Amino acid sequence: MIFLWAFIIGGAICVFGQICFDVFKMDPAHTMTLLVVLGAAFDGLGLYDPLIKFAGAGATVPITSFGNSLVHGALQELQSNGWIGVITGIFEVTSAGISAAIIFSFLAAVFVKPKG
Amino acid sequence: MANNKRKNLTAVQQEYKELAKKREPARPVSKNCVRAFLVGGAICLLGQGIQEIFVHYAGFNEKEAGNPTVAILILISVILTSLGVYDKIAQFAGAGSAVPVTGFANTMASAAIEHRSEGLVLGVGGKMFKVAGPVIVYGTVAAFIVAILHLLFNPNALGGK
């Protein structure tokens, strides 16, 4: 069942992005930025975690979950280390995504010849 | 603001703008949305599959499995970008391949590969974040603001200290 909801919710978030492209004539950078900010705002309101529980990867794979993880890191550190957590915690949870993207992209650039 | 911009144009330029607007082909919005839905959903389905594998065979719990899943998806995306396959998927899927985290990795990998000729430091290192940079900057600022709001309005934000 979780597979079905992952497909539907993940697809729906992508449709939202497509509408930003086609109807509001936004470019990919603006669309992704908007989605990340929306993800952060939703988590701030406590709405993103229920969505993850409901749709699994349908909520964690779209870029909105990046905003959600940034907020999560900050709030976690806020709980454990006090107010300084606002600064120290932001990248705590997103480390995997950002590190992986940087490292793999760098290796690709070193070893792959550009095409086209 | 839009009106101000208009005033600065000559009559001919305004006429041209009107003409260009009329001639612009209508975007097949519904078709694009269906494609975005199918491909985006499929990528999330793949993510769910990878996550289940981590949960059942590597002893992660549901929450911990999210991070390695994202890392694997990013690896797949970078490999497909290197082979030139991801761009072809993107042409078909539009936002369906741009919105998932794989699209984020794709923008970084393709920018890094594209600017390789400008050098490893200024080309690869400097241009890698051309599209991903704004995403990280606004995500971080938004997270900061949300955290501050929690600090101000949620009495439990500090964990009872």
From TrEMBL, chain A:
InterPro entries: Spore_V_AE, SpoVA. It holds the Pfam family SpoVAC_SpoVAEB. The keyword Amino-acid biosynthesis does not apply. Keywords: Membrane, Transmembrane, Transmembrane helix. Signal peptide: none annotated. The chain crosses the membrane at residues 83-112. This is Stage V sporulation protein AEB.
UniProtKB/TrEMBL annotation, chain B:
It comes from the Bacteria. Keywords: Membrane, Transmembrane, Transmembrane helix. The keyword Transmembrane helix applies. The chain crosses the membrane at residues 32-50, 70-86, 135-153. The keyword Membrane applies. It holds the Pfam family SpoVAC_SpoVAEB. This is Stage V sporulation protein AC. It comes from Cohnella kolymensis.
